[in-house]
Amino acid sequence: MLNTPMSKLLTTRAAWIVGLGALALAGVASGQAHRPDATLDELVVEVQALRAEMNQAAAASIRAQLLVGRLQMEDQRISGVVREMEAVQSDLAATAQARAEAANRQTALEDAVLTATNDVREEALKQLAAAKAMAQQNDRRQQALKRRESSLAKELQEDQVRWTEINALLENFEQSLHAR
User: Fold this and answer.
1) Is 155 exposed, middle or buried (0-12, 13-18, 19+ CB in 10 A)?
2) Half-sphere exposure of 9 (CA within 13 A, CB side)
3) Helix H segments across the chain?
4) pTM, two decimal places
5) Domain boundaries, the chain
6) pLDDT digits 0-9 by tens, 55-106
7) Are 131 and 105 in contact (CB under 8 A)?
8) Integer Cα distance of 169 and 27 in angstroms
């Protein structure tokens, strides 16, 4: 090659360059002809992954809304039970006061019956019977109110347990979202 003229070397070198360029171009052309299929497949896979992610996000959103709704309903239920329990406790206090007053009146009437004359005694006995009936009525009312208070306390405890469970579910759900 050293003895060959320079023009022939350039021509040979140019032929090699042109040949290599043609091969490279053919390789690129064949890669591009095959590549759109691979790119389309990649796009399809990516769209499917996006759809799956969107479905997961929609399901998570619905689940979160349901949990929050259940928590709000339980909170309202607890508030209603607390209000009702406060009313029952107020009624219990009023009944206890009425019971004490009726007991004092009954004692006073019993004393009056013992010291009264025959014509006044009959009226005092009627009043004593009415006072005893009122005391019994107050006792029955107080017992009913205590049963209701006990029932409400149990209901409140159950509702608070349910509220705690729902709140724990919501917290677990929130932590699972942060983990992703």
Assistant:
1) middle
2) 6
3) 6-115, 118-179
4) 0.62
5) 60-180
6) 988 988 998 899 899 999 999 999 999 999 999 999 999 999 988 888 888 8
7) yes
8) 58
